[in-house]
């Protein structure tokens, strides 16, 4: 297909790679402020474990997971997205009586470990946090609050207390022996793959046919970094390697290195582009209309609206097909500009919203499996290059849409897919328009605007009447409200007429 003059913006998309043979850890962290009442709740932890098991099943390269509270150690945006979708899908299993009040989002980051030993230190560090920072502190905190203390009084009491003092406080004041609390809370949970025999079918005589399958098993252990724990589990030794040492004191420098985060260049325009993973298959399985399914596109748009409503720093979003680009304001300090956090939070919120809203757009179609979206963040140094980036995406929308419309019309008219491809090879815009018009009686410009222009999402400067995504019509939207429109963002006059959308100082 033809290239446009905007293609040069691709050179801003820098590649990143983790050097082989590092062990890659992806740590996931939930944004659960809105779910505060799920704290230390067995069902909540069970739900997290179940989502982690699903990740291990979905991605064969993931072999081990450790988690406590709302955190999970594993591989970035895709995992966060898949995790969020699974979380929504499985919610009912764990909370049959309770409505999921809002779409969950997860941030994730990659930690690379150069050896098994470094991985052991990492795990020891996480388990130490589970035990001391999270569980012991939280138990004391909430018991004190329940006993009538205010939040600030409680914080003052617990300030600088040592492990032993917290245990004593729990025992003496509340009769709780910390050691008897469920292991799930004290130790966190591990998941790793072991070979299990499973019946896959029965033969003609009714005898079970068994196969060895790798399946995620849930394990609790006092010390997941211990040599004994590691070496006693053959699958861990096989997949990751033997452990030769026990981990003593955790070097603060090493622990600090686990916290390292890549930051996006300050005062640049950051665009986070998410893209549906294997959407070709997803669209087939869910029988989306070809080449464009209006309901599927509107579902994508409503997810983008939810993302703009959640993140005030996102000023504009543009979506086409299975992708969406989100533009952060130049001065944004969202997640201190830590790229992995920004990408994963957006991708996971978008995905969980997709699953939650599926029914609103497809009331008669079952969601067969949750989708996932990968994400990337790219910095653009100037306003002009940012607008060129957006123009590039809209030109792509146009080129693809025109090609796909011709392609599927040819297929519907009886040509096979190869014949249709050959027929369209080397054709220019004008020729394709003529083909549509002469052979199929379709005026390209009369196709729905959402297909031709893609969708733009932004906040309104002032109250306006909006109907079916077009700013004009009946339904009144208020100032600052997030709206979807299908404008021409290639033309610079659009940006000149709406300077508030991408405002910057
Ligand atoms: P990866 O992104 O590399 O994982 O592959 P992908 O299968 O998602 O392909 P890509 O992102 O390049 O393109 C998106 C694909 O989603 C299209 O090729 C279509 O197959 C499908 N798709 C997106 N929107 C629609 C739609 O409205 N209708 C139909 N039928 N398919 C769509
Ligand atoms: Mg895709």
UniProtKB/TrEMBL annotation:
A molecular-function term among this protein's GO annotations: GTP binding
Pfam families from the UniProt entry: Thg1, Thg1C
Entry's Gene Ontology cellular component terms: nucleoplasm
Known catalytic reactions: a 5'-end ribonucleotide-tRNA(His) + GTP + ATP + H2O = a 5'-end phospho-guanosine-ribonucleotide-tRNA(His) + AMP + 2 diphosphate + H(+)
This enzyme's EC code(s): 2.7.7.79
Gene3D superfamilies xref list: 3.30.70.3000
One example of a Gene Ontology biological process annotation: tRNA modification
Main location: nucleus
Cofactor(s) needed by this chain: Mg(2+)
Highest taxon above the source species: Eukaryota
Keywords: GTP-binding, Magnesium, Metal-binding, Nucleotide-binding, Nucleotidyltransferase, Nucleus, Transferase, tRNA processing
Entries under PANTHER family matching the protein: TRNA(HIS) GUANYLYLTRANSFERASE, TRNA(HIS) GUANYLYLTRANSFERASE-RELATED
Function: Adds a GMP to the 5'-end of tRNA(His) after transcription and RNase P cleavage.
Protein name: tRNA(His) guanylyltransferase
Organism, scientific name: Eruca vesicaria subsp. sativa (Garden rocket)
């Amino acid at each position: 297909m033809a290239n446009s003059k905007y293609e040069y913006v691709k050179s801003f998309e820098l590649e990143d790679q983790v050097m082989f043979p590092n062990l890659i850890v992806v740590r996931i962290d939930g944004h659960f402020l809105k779910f505060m009442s799920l704290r230390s709740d067995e069902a909540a932890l069970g739900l997290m474990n179940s989502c982690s098991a699903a990740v291990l099943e979905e991605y064969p390269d993931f072999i081990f997971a450790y988690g406590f509270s709302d955190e999970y150690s594993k591989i970035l945006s895709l995992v966060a997205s898949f995790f969020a979708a699974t979380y929504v899908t499985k919610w009912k299993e764990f909370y049959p009586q309770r409505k999921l009040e809002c779409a969950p989002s997860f941030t994730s980051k990659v930690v690379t470990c150069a050896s098994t030993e470094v991985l052991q230190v990492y795990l020891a560090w996480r388990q130490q946090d589970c035990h001391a920072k999270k569980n012991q502190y939280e138990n004391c905190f909430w018991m004190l609050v329940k006993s009538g203390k205010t939040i600030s009084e409680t914080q003052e009491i617990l300030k600088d207390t040592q492990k032993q003092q917290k245990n004593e406080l729990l025992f003496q004041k509340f009769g709780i022996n910390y050691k008897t609390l469920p292991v799930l809370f004290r130790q966190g949970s591990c998941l790793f793959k072991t070979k299990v025999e499973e019946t896959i079918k029965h033969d003609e005589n009714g005898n079970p046919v068994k196969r060895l399958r790798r399946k995620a098993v849930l394990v609790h252990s006092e010390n997941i970094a211990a040599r004994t724990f590691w070496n006693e589990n053959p699958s861990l030794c096989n997949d990751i390697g033997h452990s030769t040492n026990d981990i003593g004191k955790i070097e603060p420098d090493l622990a600090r290195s686990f916290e390292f985060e890549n930051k996006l260049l300050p005062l640049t325009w950051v665009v986070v582009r998410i893209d549906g993973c294997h959407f070709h298959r997803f669209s087939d399985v869910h029988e989306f209309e070809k080449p464009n399914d209006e309901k599927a596109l509107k579902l994508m748009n409503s997810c983008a609206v939810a993302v703009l409503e959640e993140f005030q720093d996102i000023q504009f979003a543009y979506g086409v097909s299975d992708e969406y680009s989100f533009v952060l304001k130049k001065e944004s300090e969202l997640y201190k500009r830590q790229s992995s956090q920004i990408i994963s939070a957006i991708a996971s919120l978008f995905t969980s919203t997709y699953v939650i809203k599926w029914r609103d757009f497809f009331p008669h179609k079952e969601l067969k499996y949750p989708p996932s979206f990968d994400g990337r963040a790219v910095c653009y140094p100037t306003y002009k290059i940012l607008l060129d980036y957006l123009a590039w995406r809209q030109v792509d929308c146009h080129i693809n849409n025109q090609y796909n419309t011709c392609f599927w019309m040819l297929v519907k008219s009886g040509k096979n897919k190869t014949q249709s491809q050959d027929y369209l090879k080397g054709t220019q815009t004008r020729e394709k328009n003529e083909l549509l018009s002469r052979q199929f009686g379709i005026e390209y410009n009369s196709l729905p605007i959402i297909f031709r222009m893609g969708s733009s999402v932004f906040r309104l400067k002032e109250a306006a009447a909006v109907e079916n995504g077009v700013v004009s019509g009946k339904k009144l939207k208020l100032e600052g409200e997030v709206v979807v429109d299908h404008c021409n963002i290639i033309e610079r006059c659009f940006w000149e007429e709406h300077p508030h959308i991408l405002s910057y100082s």
